[in-house]
Amino acid sequence: DTGVSQDPRHKITKRGQNVTFRCDPISEHNRLYWYRQTLGQGPEFLTYFQNEAQLEKSRLLSDRFSAERPKGSFSTLEIQRTEQGDSAMYLCASSLEVSHYEQYFGPGTRLTVT
Amino acid sequence: AQTVTQSQPEMSVQEAETVTLSCTYDTSESDYYLFWYKQPPSRQMILVIRQEAYKQQNATENRFSVNFQKAAKSFSLKISDSQLGDAAMYFCAYRSSPQGGSEKLVFGKGTKLTVNP
């Protein structure tokens, strides 16, 4: 069990560019979650998957955001036409249904939009 | 919609002493889960303790315990014998029960805990 991993750990991009983040959950975890955390705030839910199905999306997830989990394993979160307001830490978590719904978090990807 | 409020942006404690972090929440649901997560500086978030709302007994994990007051919608975390490694941001979080549908965690804004040697 190597834990949840995220790549890259840091990303600096210019406004208007597209970025993609990857999350690898703990193996055999069927649930995968994305959160966004801005400075001084708690994480805010973006979306989650059960296997490859995207079951819930937050209103925070604008049309510029898209997430996929094509084979029910790793997931990607893409942000198109980035804005300065997208600067944040993007956290991924995974869980198993039988584990009392504990979500295990990855180290996050810190996005800076200049 | 559920909300979680942590009214203490910062707290400090002397090493070996006890500290209590406060959390209140608002929900119309009767069954749910509550969590305390710890986020050390530049490190990932880890679960400290979990409480199921249907359980009357307060959860305990070693030096960490909670005071769960369902009627008051209060869920405080007590850290006993504080250690330097306890220094971190602590987040209170809410989750609906499986029957509630949503699996998302709703977090408070966090409390920054400093442990003084």
Q: What would your notes on this structure say?
A:
- The complex is a heterodimer of chains A (about 110) and B (about 120).
- Chain A is mostly beta strands.
- Chain A contains no helices and 11 strands.
- Chain A has strands spanning about 5, 10-15, 20-25, 30-35, 45-50, 55, 65-70, 75-80, 90-95, 105, 110-114.
- In chain A, strands 2, 4, 5, 6, 9, 10 and 11 form a 7-stranded mixed sheet that branches. Chain A has a 4-stranded antiparallel sheet with strand order 1-3-8-7, with no helix packed on it.
- The model of chain A has no long low-confidence stretch (mean pLDDT about 90).
- In chain B, the strands form 3 sheets. In chain B, strands 2, 5, 6, 10, 11 and 12 form a 6-stranded mixed sheet that branches. A 4-stranded antiparallel sheet of chain B has the order 3-9-8-7, with no helix packed on it. Chain B has a two-stranded antiparallel sheet with strand order 1-4.
- In chain B, strand 7 (about 60) and strand 8 (about 65-70) form a beta hairpin.
- Chain B is globular, with a radius of gyration of 14 Å.
